[in-house]
Amino acid sequence: MKKTVLAMAVPALLTAGAAQASVNLYDADGVVVDLSGAAEIQYFKGYSKSEDANLRIDDADLILTTAIAVTDSLDAVAGMGFKYEDQFNGTLSNDSGAVKNDELWVGFASDEFGTITFGRQLLISDDAGNQKDYELGTEQISFVQTEGGQVIKWVYDNGTFYAGANVDLDQDKSETTDGRQIVGGRIGARFEGFDGRVYLYDAEDISGEDVSGFNAELDYAIDAFDIAVSYGQVEYKKHANTSDKKDVDVFGISAGYQADEKTYIAVGYDIIDMDPSSGSSFAKEESTSLYANITYKLHSNAKVYAEVGVNDDEVNGADVDTDTGYVLGMEVKF
């Protein structure tokens, strides 16, 4: 089969948080099968005064993908992914995680039109966010739900221009009710060290809310330095009472320096402003976070890192007492 088709198809479907490395299990007679996974464990202390440091699973994924040559320029593709959830509740007898099948899709991939897939999968909005924190930046943008079970997704990337769109169809099959639906997309371009993109999102009745908004992101790299800037705005409305709503503005800026082949240092600053409507049940909140981290690459597929951050939070005009946060982590991919 044409390697260019597979090289474009499968990575384009994996999100920023998913495993990017892969092990080739089979490649013959126009059939390619790859397996990839990621495991990430952290010793984590958040900003909350009432929270103790804890050892936790941050990421644990496994995905099997295949591409089957239909013609010289068209592949049939499929993927099955599993996410491992940490469900430790303090007793050794229950120190085991649940396994969730979070991806199960089929579709087609082509050099000409990109990749279109159908089934259970992550939405394009799952990729939103370009800041350089591991855990201690203010959450850049919250689109509430970034995966679905009835997703139709299209992605295209020719190296300079890239775009995508998806819809998660209504889970409620009843003809007498208006159930939830999510639509969204992304458009972006890369040019001489610049990489800019905009994510769009619109959802009805997600956990009782209607959610709509965007996130604009710009990355720039020159020599050993790089910078990331983002601005997002989201409106949340109660589905049963659309006058009960809040607008959230989020801004982030971060910079990184590649000190040597294995060491990367980054700092960042985030601002989030939640402004509810008059008489709203939503809280008014303003929050800022300042963080710094260092990452050491043990191998192209393995790294360790440390991060520290401080947070200033105010809810309904009252200051929230916070602690200094810190994270020590290790990630291994294959």
Automatic annotation (TrEMBL):
<feature type="signal peptide">
    <location>
        <begin position="1"/>
        <end position="21"/>
    </location>
</feature>
<protein>
    <submittedName>
        <fullName>Outer membrane protein (Porin)</fullName>
    </submittedName>
</protein>
<keyword id="KW-0732">Signal</keyword>
<dbReference type="InterPro" id="IPR050298">
    <property type="entry name" value="Gram-neg_bact_OMP"/>
</dbReference>
<dbReference type="InterPro" id="IPR033900">
    <property type="entry name" value="Gram_neg_porin_domain"/>
</dbReference>
<dbReference type="Pfam" id="PF13609">
    <property type="entry name" value="Porin_4"/>
</dbReference>
<dbReference type="GO" id="GO:0009279">
    <property type="term" value="C:cell outer membrane"/>
</dbReference>
<dbReference type="GO" id="GO:0015288">
    <property type="term" value="F:porin activity"/>
</dbReference>
<feature type="domain" description="Porin">
    <location>
        <begin position="9"/>
        <end position="313"/>
    </location>
</feature>
<keyword id="KW-0472">Membrane</keyword>
<dbReference type="InterPro" id="IPR023614">
    <property type="entry name" value="Porin_dom_sf"/>
</dbReference>
